[in-house]
Design goal:
Layout lengths: L1 E7 L4 H12 L4 E7 L4 E6 L4 H15 L4 E3 L2
Antiparallel strand pairs: 1-3, 1-4, 2-3
Length: about 70
């Protein structure tokens, strides 16, 4: 499954790269992209683990940039 999420208050390209690198290391991640210019997170993982991977990705992003919010709707 591949989904794209909007990000709010992603303040710098360096933080976006740190988020992408951290998420890429998670088990189950098949593809990830954090785009600073479009303020979007693209995440791909197998259907059966997608929700768990997404929760971990959200936590990692909060550690890198606490003010950034991933819109999960």
């Amino acid at each position: 499954m591949k989904k794209v999420f909007n990000m709010v208050d992603l303040d710098c390209a360096n933080c976006a790269q740190k988020m992408e690198d951290a998420i890429r290391k998670l088990d189950g991640v098949q593809f990830v992209s954090v785009n600073f210019l479009t303020q979007k997170l693209t995440l791909e993982a197998k259907d059966d683990v997608f929700d768990a991977v997404l929760k971990k990705a959200v936590r990692l992003c909060a550690k890198v940039e606490p003010d950034c919010e991933i819109v999960l709707k």
